[in-house]
Each structure stands twice: as C-alpha cells, then as structure tokens.
Amino acid sequence: MTAAGPATRKRVLIDCDPGIDDALALFLALASPELSVEAITVVAGNVPVAQGVDNALRLLELAGRPEIPVARGAVSPLLRKLITGEAIHGENGLGGVRLPAPSRGPDARHAADLMIELAQARPGEITWVAIGPLTNVALALAKAPELGELVPEIILMGGALSGGNITPAAEYNIYADAEAARIVFASGIPITMLELGATSQVALTREHLALWQAASSPVARAAAAMADHYLRVYEARGLRGGHLHDPLAVGMAIDKNFARASRRLRVEIETRGEFTDGATVADCRPGQAGRRAPNADVPAIIDSERFLALFLERLTLLPR
Ligand code: RIB
Ligand code: CA
C-alpha cells in the first residue's frame, strides 16, 4: 500500500449506527490516508437514531474532523419494529464513554437525500460503506433508482453464512431490516459483503487495548475505553476477544487485499422464515448450472494479523 495523495483517495460515505464497533470503524476511516470521508449518515440500529447522530458528531469532534457532514436517517426499519443493541453497546451506544460536546449540529438534509445528492454530484466516485441496518440505503435507492448507475460499490457489514448472532440464522444488521436488505441486494450495485464468518476472524483483545491506553492520542484512549466495555460483553459470553465487525468493512475500503480469498455468490434475504427470518441465504454449491447471477463478493479468508496491526496503529495517529 502506498501513501495516497488527495487525488487518489477513495471517496466514501459511511452509513452507520454508532455503536462501539461503528465508532472504531469511523476512527479507522478518518485515520486512513487512502480514504476521503465525504459524509456520515446515521440509521436507527444499535441505538435510536437521535443518539446515533449525537454519537457521530462527538466522534468527529474528538477526531478533529467536525467539518464532515452528519445526516440523520431513518428512525425505524421500513416495516419492522426497531430492535436496539444497548445490551452490547451500552445505554449511550459508546459503552458509557462521555465524549466532548460537538461544536455543530447535524446536516439539515435527511440521510437518504444527502446520499443521493452526493452521488449525483460525484457520479461513480463515492463508495458507500454501510455498517448498520440498511434502511437508509434502501430509502435512497427507492427514492432515486438512478443510484444504480452513480454508486460504484456498497461495502457492507452484514449477513451470516454459518450461524448468526441476533438469532441462530441471522446477523443483526440484516435481521433488523430484512426488507431493506432485500432491496439493497436486488439493486444491481456491486456489493462486497463482510458477513460474520469473515468479521469473526478479527478479534480485539485486552493485549491490544494496552497500546491504545498507553497512547497520547485522545482518540486512542477513548477507543480503549469503549472497547473495554465491548470486551466485557464478549468476556461475559466466554470469548477472549471482541469481533471487529464494522472496522473490517472500512478495512476493505482501504485495501481489498485484506481478504486473501473471496467468493462471488448469489445472496438472497429471507423475510418470512419462522426460524430463518433475516437470514442471508447463499448458494455455495459448486458448479450449480443455471444458478442465479451472483450479486455479492463475499470475503472468506481475512489477513487478520495485517489488518489488526494497521487498525491498532492508525487509531494512535488521530487527530491528524
Ligand atoms: O452484527 C454486527 C453488526 O450489528 C455491527 O454493525 C454492529 O455495530 C451491529 O450494528
Ligand atoms: Ca454497526
């Protein structure tokens, strides 16, 4: 990877539900010279959308990037009742960590409108990194079908091909708004899907936190405090590390080579199953003649060691 100049940076819009791993993902994006974060849009998910917007504003303030627009999105899934994740992310979504108040408020536009306007202003240039339920993405696609020609790629954290987390069959981001996910996977926009089988290969441990706790960076120290809460949740479930779901999606925007192997698969979203509601069903059977055209690149083997080294080091560099 060479140091990217401004002209070669990949422009990204990050749609998120901060959320501790979302927060870590945002910090990674802001610390990475390969990326230019054009906007943050917030969706109801881990926490109600108003809390998510406040968290996003505070995260950008701490990272020294208050000029990046933050737009408020959907207050609830398209059809389903909102299921939030305070049990994992804490009451305020950031593990109870209190960040400095933001110096400005959110953008006046709805998230879906900001997504559309930026894609229209820079056709083919802005990759969407979606790390929460896909409600905002689906709303934007429903409002402006031409986005299929304007958005070059959606890199999303979501889905589970070998066991879920919110149910035995489903991963939270997809399950929370399966109808939205179905719209997104049918959009025709190239998708890179970081499902649980990939993201669970990357775990943050207490040994890793020591680096951030010793850093002079206020971002690294805040990340350590949030991650401490996150790790306690995982440790209470008998796990030694906390899976870096959302940071890995940003990692794939930085360098696709973090995936050492990927599959092109047709992914369908279950919206009616008694036991499989919200599942991502992929036809992985070899040589299925006549199978439906693939709609997603699905990383299978992650270079976890190289990703973790970059992730840990970069957060110590903020604010830049
Ligand atoms: O299943 C993991 C996903 O759900 C992550 O995006 C996490 O932040 C939660 O939103
Ligand atoms: Ca998330």
Q: Based on the structure given, which CATH architecture is correct? A: Alpha-Beta Complex
According to DSSP, the number of beta strands is: 12
Query: What is the CATH C level class, in words?
Result: Alpha Beta
Distance between the termini: 19 Å
Counting H and I runs of at least 4 residues, what is the number of helices? Answer: 13
Q: How would you describe what is shown here?
A:
This protein has 13 helices and twelve strands. The mean pLDDT is 96. 37% of the residues lie in helices and 17% in strands. The strands form four sheets. The chain has a six-stranded parallel sheet with strand order 3-2-1-4-5-6, with helices on both faces. The chain has a two-stranded antiparallel sheet with strand order 7-8. The longest helix is centred in the C-terminal third of the chain and has 19 residues, at 218-236. It has one domain: Ribonucleoside hydrolase-like (Inosine-uridine Nucleoside N-ribohydrolase, Chain A, Alpha-Beta Complex). Helix 10 packs antiparallel against helix 11. It is of the alpha/beta class and 320 residues long. It binds alpha-D-ribofuranose (RIB) and calcium ion.
What's this model, at a glance?
The protein has helices spanning 20-30, 49-62, 86-89, 111-121, 135-143, 147-150, 172-176, 178-185, 196-199, 206-213, 218-236, 245-254, 304-315; strands at residues 10-16, 35-42, 70-72, 126-130, 154-157, 191-194, 203-204, 242-243, 259-265, 267-269, 280-282, 296-302. It has 320 residues and is an alpha/beta fold. It has one domain (8-314): Ribonucleoside hydrolase-like (Inosine-uridine Nucleoside N-ribohydrolase, Chain A).
